[in-house]
Amino acid sequence: MYGSYQGEVIEWRVLDKKGDEVLLISEYGLDAQPYDTSGKNRVLWEDSTIREWLNDDFYNSAFSEDEKANIVLSFSEGFEAKNSSTRLLGGKPYYHLERGTKDKIFLLSYTEMCLYFDPDPNPNPKEGSCFDFQYGHDEVLCYPTEYAKQRLYMLNVKDACGWWMADCFYDTDGVGVISGYGQAQREILLNSSRYAVRPAMWVTWQSDMQVIEESRSYNNKG
User: Fold this and answer.
1) Over the stretch 65-88, which tens digit does the pLDDT of each residue have?
2) Which of 84, 90, 104 is nearest to 167 (CA)?
């Protein structure tokens, strides 16, 4: 547990550890926010209103000043091994664009989602994307908090919700999403309330943090 939002403590899942810093993503969808409200179909992460919302409204309402002090300003270039080249012979440019910004709070990019959630550690991007849209995948299913549930436009029959990723695409409109059935897809309606927000962040580890790792809640004492 770290921070709270709309009267509910936020539960976090550990995705990665580097020294005394850990990468966390919210276990549940915390809110239903549009990716961008400009009316455009193609918006980069760096220009999106959801990036502004995460690093202003959400950041300031969810965390105390002491908690903010542990949140790290971070940058990621993604993971090329999880991307798909737009060239027949491979290499740049890649289909999925990365964030390319420094942020306290962010959304995972497609390649980060693949690295941290895909059970196959060495998938071949040429054989299809991870969490292909033709099938549902339990590994990336997300469930909303009670607050988010009231704001979401759509849930699946089991009350799971879709969630936004950060990346747009090299040569097409829209941004990446995970559907309510656990499929990696593209969404062109960026001013939509169909998808939940799962904030991610790097934080300096504190001994009293309670997080979720490998589907088990634990309290790290070391």
Assistant:
1) 999 999 999 987 765 666 665 556
2) 84
| CA distances from residue 116 to 66, 122, 140 in whole angstroms, order as listed | 28, 12, 10
Tell me which residue of 156, 121, 125, 161 sits closest to 141, measured CA to CA: 161
Per the CB < 8 A criterion, the answer to whether 1 and 10 are in contact is yes
Contact between residue 72 and residue 200 where contact means Cβ atoms under 8 Å apart: no
- Per-residue pLDDT tens for 5-55? 999 999 999 999 999 999 999 999 999 999 999 998 788 899 999 999 999
Burial grade of 168 (CB within 10 A; 0-12, 13-18, 19 or more): buried
- Nearest Cα to 211, choosing from 220, 203, 202? 220
Q: Which two tokens stand for residue 170?
A: 């090299």
Average the pLDDT over each of 61-75, 114-128, 137-151, 154-168 and give the range with the smallest value. Answer: 114-128
User: Could you tell me which of 213, 158, 149, 152 has the C-alpha nearest to residue 182?
Assistant: 158
Helix (H) / strand (E) element for 49: namely: helix 49-53
